[in-house]
Amino acid sequence: MFTSFSTALSALNATATAVDVVGNNLANLNTPGFKTNVVYFRDLVTQSLGAGLGETQVGFGTGRPLTIRQFTQGAIQSSTGLLDAAVQGDGFFVTKNAQGNTMYTRAGNFQVDDAGNLKTNTGELVQGWTSLNTATGVLDTNGAIGDIVVPVGAAKQPVASSLFTLDLNLNSSAAADETSRFSSAIKLYDSLGSTHVLTVHFQKTAPSEWAYSVTIPGEEISGGTAGTPFDVSGASGTLTFGSDGLLTSPAPGSPISFDIPGLATGAADMHLAWNPYTAANTGRITQFGQPSAPSASSQNGSAAAQLIRVGLADGGKMLAQYSDGQQVIVGQVAMAGVRNPESLIAAGNNNYQVSARTATPAIGLVDIAREFTQLIVLQRGYQANSRVITTVDELSQETINLKR
């Protein structure tokens, strides 16, 4: 009978632990990326009474309960933070703490320090990729991960134009004389980011043939005359169209190339290629029985611009937005998947670290209704076991009274 004391006491201790776990779950309801713990009770070894054949078995109570962290998907809250992120499904953000240890977290409330380092709100460095492929200029995610450092207050270097396109129609009904003259302008950038407006002139010279030439304002060329267009050397020739109004010459794959030397801004000479065809080798310039008119133009240069903001986009891409409206991918946040995330050890500050049982270094908010229900169940369990203690005390008192 007196083992009932220790049996009930073990239940009190186990239930108290469970209440602590639930209390901790409830305390972290608003903690980003917090994962709830679930309590699992277990019995202690059973004692066989009598002849040892197991007819009467009495347990010794309950052992210290196991706690397993539940890495299930929870609700994702909306946020106005440019650097706030949430994981949909399995996975962890990878971070490094001040000691250089790799940590894992589901909390995505990030921020940037004065040096441009992307950090968690508790100071861990977020890991990912920021290196650009030197050949393509595209973010390289094939290398090792490292600290994500984004540009802070830096100006974007200008990009000199090297390729441009013009989409337009030339009137097939126009007379082959000066009355057919038509011009289309396009703005380009030099190596210093200064703008230059090139004007492409067209004039019909024969049925299905148009002569073209390119000019630049004279004041933009050293030795040019202000107010007088300057003819660009090598930027003239003839366009030929077929009976269907489509471009036939120059042939596809033969861009019209020319240089503009001696810029008054002091920038490097411009080396330009005008491609009159699309990637599918369809002519961008047509000759149909409609008035001559442009429809579109494009070029690959850009001016210098100031950084306005940095934010996270879908997929964990770090986007830098500049004053010219251009958005550039400057980083990629790394994710880690763990086959058995329940083996991770909580390290505080919403971080986890691997244990000896972790395979290879998975989110949800606490379900408040479930936790309050669990709290009530545990409270009733604690009350019931307290009653057992009281009952055993009364029985022992009766036993003592028998000796009187």
Share of residues in strands: 25-35%
Cα(first) to Cα(last) distance is 20 Å
Return the CATH topology of the largest domain: Tick-borne Encephalitis virus Glycoprotein, domain 1
Coarse structural class: alpha+beta
* SSE arrangement, N to C: HEEEEEEEEEEEEEEEEEEEEEEEEEEEH
Uncertain residue segments:
362-372
- Annotation field: number of helices: 2
Give the overall shape.
Answer: rod-shaped
Structural description of this entry:
The protein has 404 residues and is an alpha+beta fold. The chain folds into 3 domains: 3-73 and 365-402, no CATH class; 92-154 and 313-353, no CATH class; 163-303, Flagellar hook protein FlgE (Tick-borne Encephalitis virus Glycoprotein, domain 1, Sandwich), CATH 2.60.98.20. The protein is 15% helix and 35% strand. The chain contains 2 helices and 27 strands. It has helices spanning 3-27, 368-402, and strands spanning 37-40, 46-49, 56-59, 66-69, 92-96, 102-105, 110-112, 118-120, 125-129, 146-147, 155-156, 163-169, 182-189, 195-206, 209-217, 229-241, 247-249, 256-260, 270-274, 285-286, 293-299, 305-312, 317-322, 327-333, 335-336, 345-348, 351-353. Strands 5, 6, 9, 10, 11, 22, 23, 24, 25, 26 and 27 form an 11-stranded antiparallel beta sheet that branches. Strands 12, 18, 19, 20 and 21 form a 5-stranded mixed beta sheet that branches. Helix 1 runs antiparallel to helix 2 (368-402). The chain is rod-shaped. The two termini are 20 Å apart. 25% of the residues are buried.
List keywords for this structure.
single chain, 404 residues, alpha+beta, Tick-borne Encephalitis virus Glycoprotein, domain 1, 11-stranded antiparallel sheet, 5-stranded mixed sheet, rod-shaped
